[in-house]
Amino acid sequence: MLIISYIALCLLFIVYLYTLSVRIEGKIINVMVPYLIITVPTLYVFEGIFVYLSEVQNYTVEYLFFYTCYITYIASFVISYLYTQRKPIYNKSNTKNKPRYVFTSLLFTFLAFIIYLPVLMEFREYILSPRRIYELTRTGYGIYFYPSLMFSLVASICAFFTYKKSKLFCISIVLFNCILIF
After folding, report:
1. Three-state SS at 99
2. Segments making up each domain of the chain, as ranges
3. Which residues of 156-165 are buried (b: 16+ CB within 10 A; e: fewer)?
């Protein structure tokens, strides 16, 4: 029960960090959103359910250490990001920089899909059970999984910058990448 209480406390601290970043930046979609989408369900919700349903009381110290490390990591990242971004950056060049976030998000989504395609093709019968794919690909498939995960995260971040232009595009790219990740 101590483990579940500590996981809940860590989740409350994550929510506090998110509200702090919303208050300082003034934006709902900010630096914490990718962490909230990807990590909160896996580390805090599903892991809490797993701890509740299984007998892992012998690993209390390990869980406390693990979650303390995660909280330290994300807290240091968010606080350093929020409090080092105070100075405005002035662009003195004559060229107009028009970021191509739509193209970049589509490109990284395509790259993520192409890189993960060999795993999807080999294990197409398990496409709806990612746990089984994980069991079968424990060794030798990291070269496909990790770059694909990185490209999906970068595509999702780039898609968030297109939110003002097209909400439907932003939501569809983020949802597709979440499906590809999970």
Report:
1. coil
2. 2-84, 101-181
3. bbbbbebbee
